[in-house]
Design brief:
The protein is of the alpha/beta class. The protein has helices at residues 44-51, 79-92, 105-116, 140-145, 152-155, 161-166, 171-179, 195-198, 211-224, 227-234, 236-242, 272-276, 279-284, 300-303, 305-321; strands at 6-12, 15-22, 29-33, 56-60, 98-103, 121-127, 255-260, 288-293. Strands 1-2-4-3-5-6-7-8 form an 8-stranded mixed sheet, sandwiched between helices. Pfam families: Abhydrolase_1. Residues 28-301 form the AB hydrolase-1 domain.
């Protein structure tokens, strides 16, 4: 990464977010939203690539992560708070409309941004997590109970439980257990087992990431802890209540969805990939392009960085030409 990457603190929605940015400030703004358990650093390849093609790239540490403010209660991590954080960033940069890309939880924030404020999004790229219509009769926590207590999302619900389980390992080990996942199921641990204990580390680190890069994440989480990131999962039922007014709404923003064919949860007849390739997804996101990357796993913008960067750039350039 070149020295022209800048980090600064931005006040938005009553909190301070740490933001990495690079590129011509007069260029079109591209906002990159990371997922769990990451920081702005997960977009390092795209930051360099997109800024070199004339875009002004901004990637925050989301609330609760890295060097951004972390609030103790899960009630401060609803999609209302998270989308408001993003709107505040757009306002800070004086941008009426921006391109937005989100991965994992960042993708969920991006989908909600497109629902709440489509006027602020010129085009949206979602990585790994598609838009799922809200089920009016089933809260997320009740849905996840069908997988049993071993499901990672269920284990993340009780305050302190996952934090205590993670604390039995050093942060570098925790990062490796998540970032190097190659499983395609829904991450369910056996009975009486914590998911962090169940996840395995491969014998060799894959060539798309280095030990030093994983250490960058580990050092951030060593300082920040995991409560902020876990609070996103603990606010899922609150999000379900907040999203009620948008029941049956469609995503009208031009959208590109990018995912690996071997992402978490893709496996089986009710897997995510079956939904992505079905008619429901296209009906709720009518202006949609879908790209499935062969042999791609969950942390796709790092593992397949060149391909993802090119897919994002082609989408941005196409929309820029249609203005």
């Amino acid at each position: 990464m070149t020295s022209s990457l800048r980090e600064k603190k931005v006040k938005t929605n009553g909190i301070w977010l740490n933001v990495a940015e690079k590129g011509d400030k007069e260029g079109p703004l591209v906002l990159l939203l990371h997922g769990f358990p990451e920081t702005w650093y997960s977009w390092r390849h795209q930051i360099d690539f997109l800024s070199s093609h004339g875009y002004h790239v901004v990637a925050p540490d989301l609330r609760g992560y890295g060097d951004s403010d972390s609030l103790p209660s899960h009630e401060s991590y609803t999609v209302s708070h998270l989308v408001a954080d993003v709107i505040g960033l757009l306002d800070h940069y004086g941008t009426a409309q921006a391109f937005v890309a989100g991965h994992d939880w960042g993708a969920i924030i991006g989908w909600c941004l497109c629902l709440f404020r489509p006027d602020r999004v010129k085009g949206y790229i979602s990585l790994s997590v598609p838009y799922f219509p809200r089920d009016p009769k089933l809260k997320p926590s009740d849905f996840f109970k069908s997988f049993g207590d071993g499901l990672y999302i269920s284990q993340f619900q009780k305050p302190g439980r996952a934090e205590a389980a993670f604390a039995k390992h050093d942060c570098l080990t925790v990062m490796k257990k998540f970032l190097l996942i190659t499983r395609t199921d829904y991450l369910v641990a056996p009975p009486d087992t914590e998911i962090i204990d169940h996840l395995e580390i491969p014998s060799t680190i894959p060539d798309w990431i280095t030990e030093e890069e994983i250490q960058v994440y580990a050092e951030k989480f060593q300082r920040s802890g995991f409560t902020g990131p876990l609070n996103y999962y603990r606010a899922m039922d609150l999000n379900w209540e907040i999203l009620a007014p948008w029941q049956d709404s469609k995503i009208v923003v031009p959208t590109k969805f990018i995912a690996g064919d071997k992402d978490i949860g893709n496996e089986g007849p009710n897997g995510t990939m079956e939904y992505v390739k079905g008619e429901m997804f296209k009906s709720v996101v009518p202006n949609l392009e879908i790209v499935v990357i062969e042999d791609g796993h969950h942390f796709i913008q790092q593992e397949k960085s060149e391909q993802v960067s090119q897919e994002i750039l082609s989408f941005l350039n196409k929309l820029s030409k249609t203005e």
